[in-house]
Design goal:
mainly alpha
């Protein structure tokens, strides 16, 4: 009984640890975006004010950042967890019938 409790605790810790890494990665990406894009904007306006090229990296990186946000905070996580549990249950049933 005690082993099962420790195992559940370990699994919960690993899951929380993965979640913290995901959040840390997203916030690191967001921080970099918020620091680099204004620099590119200033550089663009200083060197070639006739053409706003900074929009291109802002758009590309912004789409990547939005995609990262959806993967970290989006609805995909619930589906993923349900699918993992479903596949684990299916595997248990298959082993019982063999």
């Amino acid at each position: 009984m005690e082993i099962l409790s420790v195992d559940k605790e370990t699994v919960a810790y690993e899951k929380a640890s993965r979640r913290v890494k995901e959040l840390k990665g997203f916030y690191g990406n967001l921080t970099s975006y918020c620091m680099v894009i204004p620099f590119l904007c200033i550089l663009n306006l200083w060197t070639s004010p006739g053409y706003f090229w900074f929009f291109w990296p802002m758009l590309g990186w912004g789409l990547g950042l939005a995609s990262h946000a959806v993967s970290v905070f989006g609805i995909g996580k619930d589906w993923e967890e349900k699918k993992i549990k479903e596949l684990m249950e299916q595997e248990k049933r298959n082993h019982k019938t063999l």
